[in-house]
Amino acid sequence: MIERAHITGVGGHRPIQWCCPYRVELGEKDRKEVYITARQQGDVKMIQEHGFRSWFATPIVLTLLIGVGAHLGVAHRVHAADDFVVFGMEGVQIKPDSVVVSGDVGGNLSPSGPLLHADVEVSLGPNVRMESAVSRVFGNRVALGDHTQIFDVQANSLSGNGTAHGHLITPIHVPVVTTLPPIPKIPTATEDVHVPPSSMRWLDAGSFDELMVRAGATLTLTGGVYTFSSIDVKTHARLVIEAATEIHVANRFAVGERVRIEPATGTALTGADLVIVVTGHNGSSGSMTDVPKATSIGTGSTIHANIYGPNGSLEIQANSEVHGALLGKWVIVGPKSSVSLEGGFGLKVREENQAIMASLEQSQTALGLDPGSAGTTDATSTPISASPASGLAPLTVSFHDQSPLRVSDYRWDFGDGHTSTDATPTHTFSNPGTYQIQLRVTQPDHHDTLIEGPTITVYPEDGIPLLFESFHDPSLPGWQVTDDGSWQGPSQWMADTGTLTQTSNIWSPPATADSLPQPGTYLLYHGGMKWQDYRATFIMSSTDDDAFGMMFRVQDEHHYYRFSWDRERAVRRVVKNVNGVFSVLAEDHVPYELGKAYQVEILAARDLLEVRIDSEPIMGGPIHDASLSVGSIAFYSWYNKGAHFDDLSVKGLEAGSTTNVSTIQKP
Fold it and tell me: From CA 292, how far away is CA 295, in angstroms rounded?
């Protein structure tokens, strides 16, 4: 039976009148034929199926979701004319556990410079989900993380372990979109707009210099075009529109945590009624990795707007909601966020790619499917499935050939010296390493075909590598600098000779031994925000005599643990920062030697924390604290212009393992 019929549609107003069949085949004993009729009624099309009626703007698409094992044969298919909800000129990265509620996702170019993720222009991380069956993914190279779910994808290269419930359409011509929105000229102005904390203000359209909305404040825009040199909206603030509004920003657009940008209560406005254009670039150089980013939306924010950043990064941080569209040079959607299309920028896929999409037979052939069939397709370049594709040694993997070929003989090569002639073999990899799987099949006509299989990664028993960093890339990809010290800044983090250094004396007073906040500078690894239990090892040394070390389980600037070592004050300690409140978990009073390299190990396993120097536990051994259970790592420096770090390794621990932790009873 048909479990659900879902009909969606948006877009233009072309006159149309047709009747076309959609056949659902559930086996010889159960067949049903569904006829959908549509006729134009002014600017709205009526869809009717056995008495069910719904009205949508034209054109439309019908998606039938059917029972397990059924096959959907589609005689004719019309995509909704959705715009892009996320589009990056040089790259798009949607981080784990995020949801694309509606709209397309795409990367425009194939840049030769650095990319946001690995070697692909469009990256959808693990557990990313597209909810609309008419949402599509476009890009030269597309990668899907584990358990990611999408529908149609048009790409020249598709990799990863996600699932495409649709068609792989190839090739694609880049740029995907040839016409982008114009970039406005922003006049200079001298009048600042400052909204004090927890206050309210209304502002009419006009040209202004700096806009600062302080924590907890609300600024209401009455409508029209506003220009600013920069915008800084602090934590828990609101930016509200009472009528259709455009905001043009010459430099940086910075939004703090848990900010709301939205229509006024009681209006019929949506994200389509607010357009924000940010013409600034990243940091001082404009490079992809430079900071601060041109546009940054803080954690836990809710945004109803269409945001355009043609010259820099447009970054949405974790647990945020966007109702509108995101268009930038580089676009990053943080973990556990959602994006829903409201409005868009009217981006049109170039004609050559539209022509390719129109050919259903070509898209099916590209997937190796029989004409007329459509089903779930693993989003990899190989028809061989492997489960699991990675894990700790010894790792047992099950293989299955999902190719449409008729096969009489199988010859599997597992890449570790072992082979099999089983149709669906299971093999155990005993040693850590990376193994390329190959399958040679013989068809009934005696023709041999070699199929390149997936890569299997086997990790050492002592942990899953989360991060290895030898600091040879001066752009520090994946890392972000935060300077919270107010004196002698900015920081000077550098990595170009295999060592990470920080050569600025940036700090904030007081300089006493009992001061805990000690704001200075830190270099945060963004890819680890969901890490739970792990062991970080690295080498640290200093030619200065003030504090440096590592922050761990970092969630944001107000939630982290920090190990620091201070020679001048002869103290090394672990502190925790929860909601901006600092407290000491452990400390002792030992100075370090100038220029000496120390091997540091920091372990976080459930509620147990431990720091070791040169393999020896310090500060009395393990600490028990359950305040913070997840978070990344960051290198830290306070008043120290001679900090050096090297040979960083972070390994995950299985299910909160506490292997090699000193034995101590909880108090």
Answer: 8
